[in-house]
Amino acid sequence: MVDKEISNEDIYALLQSVVSQNNEIKQEIRNINSRIDLITVRVNGTNEKVEKLEEENRELKSLVEGLERQAKKYNIVVYGLPETKKDTLEDVKYLIETLDIQVSSDIEVRDAYRIGKKVEGKIQPIVAELTTYRMKADILIKSKRNEILQKKGVFISNDYPKKIYQQRKFLHSKLKAAKSQGHTAQITKHNSLQINGKIFSYQELVDEEEENQREISSAPETHKPSEAKRKDREETPEEARNSKPKISAEIRTSNRNRNKQ
User: Fold this and answer.
1) What does each of the 261 residues of the chain score in pLDDT, given as a tens digit?
2) Angle, CA of 41, 42 and 46, to the nearest 5°
3) 121-148 as b/e, with b when 16 or more CB fall inside 10 Å?
4) What region, left, alpha or beta, does residue 149 occupy, with left being phi > 0 and alpha being psi -120 to 50 degrees?
5) Alpha helix (H) residue ranges in 72-120
6) Cα 24 to chain center, whole Å?
């Protein structure tokens, strides 16, 4: 069988078909690029809207925090004061007078009320709204020096905004851990933790906590003895060290230096 010869016309027709298909593909690519450009414009517009909303959200949060600080500026919180048959406001006034602070009028203590859910066997804290910063400062200073209140478990503090309260709660856990290690520690008025004369900011401690959690989660699991077997023997020094609260690397260094002395 003899192959049919391909004429110039056939080759030309084939080239025309290829060119036509190529043009269709190019047009389809242009259409797709146009749709991509349109989507990109829409995405960029959406991102700008999101960024604008996030900025407005930050501004609103800042405004709310400022208003909350202003509203709580003259407030104190009393912990551990048992309920009596008297009105809560009268209980607070009596407490203030035990600190040798004269309440000259009802205007100075505007209101007092208990917060939180009422739970049997648990004393609800009291928020006292004062009208002068002078009285608030006197109460906070004198309550810290009053041994009678301390023995009764009555503690008075600032009425912090929610964000600051959560930060202070975290700092108190770190304070307790540092003191359990025998270190000198205190929470500063700038919401930081001072340990052995060194200042650790709230964010530094949070970053360290997150790093510790990552190390724990990435560490390989080891076989742990059952609780019953663990009770039958004494803790090894390594287990005793691991059972202690974690503290900053600088504090651990302080421990090693102190042990060498």
Assistant:
1) 445 677 777 777 888 888 888 888 988 898 898 889 888 888 888 888 888 888 888 888 888 888 888 889 899 999 999 988 888 999 998 898 888 887 766 668 889 999 988 888 899 999 999 988 888 999 999 998 898 898 899 999 999 888 888 888 899 899 998 999 899 998 887 788 998 989 998 898 889 888 888 888 877 765 555 544 444 444 444 444 444 344 555 555 555 555 555
2) 120
3) eebbbbbbbbeeeebbebbeebbeebee
4) alpha
5) 88-98
6) 58
Closest alpha carbon to 89 in 71, 67, 106: 106
Report the C-alpha gap between 80 and 122 in whole angstroms: 9
Q: Point out which residues pair with 15 in neighbouring strands.
A: none
pTM beyond 0.70, yes or no: no
Structure tokens given for 252: 């651990």
Q: What's the residue count for the chain?
A: 261
206 phi and psi, to 5 degrees? -65, -45
Query: What does the alpha-carbon distance between residue 74 and residue 96 come to, in Å, rounded to a whole number?
Result: 15
**Cα–Cα distance for residue pair 146/128, rounded to 1 Å:** 19
| The residue type at 226 | S
